[in-house]
Amino acid sequence: MQTIVFEGQDRIVLQEKPIPSLDDGDVLIQVDLCGVCASDIAAINGEVTDYSPPVVLGHEIAGVIVESRHPEVRVDQKVTVNPLISCGACDYCRVDLDKYCSQIEGIGHDIDGGYADFLKFPKYGIDTGKLIVVPDSVSSENLMFLEPLGCCINAMRETILNESVAILGAGQIGLMFSQLATLRGLEVFLLEPDVYRRDFAHSLGVDRVFGITDNEVKELIEITGGGLDTVISATTNNQEAIDLAFQIVRRGGCINFFGLSAHDQDLTVNLEKLHFFGHKLMASWAFSRWSLSQARQMIVDQGIQLGPMLTTRFPIASGIEAISHVRHGGGIKTALVGGLALEN
User: Fold this and answer.
1) What is residue 116's three-state secondary structure?
2) Does the pLDDT value for residue 344 go beyond 90?
3) Domains, the chain, ordered by start
4) What is the value of pTM for the model shown?
């Protein structure tokens, strides 16, 4: 089979590998679609350090079981995965904080992932509830969004929300946050410098979409009577995004730096100003088993628009081109298509 392997900073290769063989309790997933995630791009760029190359990338997976050596999993089930494989028994795992488990291994981070025609999912992942089965009626185009949607749902639960929220960035994450916040009855403002992405947000029904010019930011602050109750950064947390978040949040408001940050990006805060402005600063990352369950139900119920955000598809053989497309800001969401799915 063909795979895309991350070998280190700026080193990705198309590599043929044998279809994985299974041990007792493992299953084999035929990958239909696998989303190209911003975290993969950040790893390739050398901005984040939580990957263990060489590894086949890809954790936003939609596929079908084609071989099972696990008694509780049958062939032809439509599945995705919880890509954080943890021990399932430590203090963190017991309270649904698997992402802090000291034994964690990530699909597409440490274990070969879904930028491939097939993915082996291990027995201990199944035994700890990390294989997610959905009805056949769920499309792969929606299913591949389950993991990032779970991340957004988790962040919404953690964030201090009142009446108004600004979302920075109109990529897939910002668009999911905008829809989730609207469903919560919040007053939503979406900020995005790119015209194409602003127009796309309008097409999904997001009404209040702003650029980030000085005049537009000033207008936003005036409209909201001094700023937003909450700001969620759904973009790379570089200095420009950090400064914008502090500029538009009201006194006493909350900023969630959800988006990725480069490993050498620091947040410098004047403590006296923080004290008197009363800002609540936080960060959310990844998901919980609870939030993935919520995401699964929302996808089954078709309670959120996801499929339209999949704007670009590439075959595995063109995976390096796909990654370049995403690195240069192309489209909204890009996915790799497994070889067998492409043939069908």
Assistant:
1) strand
2) no
3) 2-149+287-343 (3.90.180.10), 160-282 (3.40.50.720)
4) 0.96
